[in-house]
Amino acid sequence: MTVRIGVVTFPGSLDDRDAQRAVRIAGAEPVALWHGSHDLEGVDALVLPGGFSYGDYLRAGSIAALSPIMAEVKDAAAKGLPVLGICNGFQMLVESHLLPGGLIRNSHQHFIRRDQKLTVENSDTAWTNEFRRGQEIVIPLKNADGGYIADEQTLDRIEGEGLVAFRYAGVNPNGSLRDIAGITNEAGNVVGLMPHPEHATEAGFGPDTSAAMRSGIDGIGFFASAIAAVARVAA
Q1: What does the record give as the active site (predicted)?
Q2: How many Cβ atoms from other residues are within 10 Å of residue 146's Cβ?
């Protein structure tokens, strides 16, 4: 069985081709989807990629969250389809209320780009099952509106229910509350994070490691996790 993972392109998407490449490197078939369509083409999992959909007007991800395909995404997510939102895709997920909280301008008011250390807080989701809880990984980060916020009651709830998927380690790059870098829904099929795993899937093009420059491929674990999750359901 070849797992088919859709990648939705919105006006202003920048990392859709990178996400498709990451899917292919992981061993799945990437399927290009268009924001104006209502057809998910029977994919087994779905990626909402990074970029600046609709120029980030109003709020980052807020207009894209109203795109025609998002109605299908919400229905499919409710039925258990694995959905990963990366950066702008994460912003779409919170704007669509598929994940709690919100994302605002970085606390230092500047765009930031860095190879970011993350701690895996939840390894039981469709997109994290190839990691270990407590594992430290390095994933490229690039955003201007990456500050995760929620009210104290919501923060306490997602902490108490184990819905924090990733936490920033070493440094908090954008002022996210409680160092939250990514979260999951209760069912574990929807995950959103600000760093870009699709940029750490091929040696020679990823973050630096102690072994060699640009050799980091921690991002492959996200896509391998989705493939494994789909295979388990199919079995």
Answers
A1: 87, 196, 198
A2: 27
